[in-house]
């Protein structure tokens, strides 16, 4: 599916530096640069952390295409049923480009 098909929809973006960003896709280009509106970062804490997971609002956010690992549509109905402060997980880790 082309990214243009996701314009005006809520998307989830996982970056190469392990950020988990959700927002409404308002613009994209052929280098996969993404502009998200009403964006926020979901910070998922590990099981051993005393702090709850959190959501950090960004507003309008630009994700450079060379930092995008994954971009997909959010099922908004299912997303509303999840208490994201209770979600736990281990860090994804970084990704290296092989030369």
CATH T-level fold name: SH3 type barrels
The strand order across the widest sheet is 4-3-2-1-5
Shape: globular
The total beta strand count reads 5
What structural class should be given to the helix and strand makeup? mainly beta
Helix-strand pattern, N to C? EEEEEH
The separation of the N and C termini measures 28 Å
Summed up, the domain count is 1
CA radius of gyration is 14 Å
Task: Tell me the β content.
Answer: 35-45%
Query: What is the helix fraction of residues, given as a range?
Result: under 10%
**What is the CATH architecture annotation?**
Roll
Provide the residue-averaged pLDDT.
90
Report the sheet with the most strands, covering strand number, pairing sense and barrel closure. Answer: 5 strands, antiparallel
User: What is the level 1 CATH name?
Assistant: Mainly Beta
Q: Helix count? A: 1
Uncertain ranges: none
Give a verbal description of the structure:
- By secondary structure, the protein is mainly beta.
- It has a single domain, classed as SH3 type barrels.
- Helices cover 5% and strands 41% of the residues.
- It has one helix at residues 76-80, and strands at 10-15, 20-28, 34-43, 54-63, 68-73.
- The chain has a 5-stranded antiparallel sheet with strand order 4-3-2-1-5, with no helix packed on it.
- The chain is globular.
List key phrases describing it.
SH3 type barrels; mRNA binding; mRNA splicing
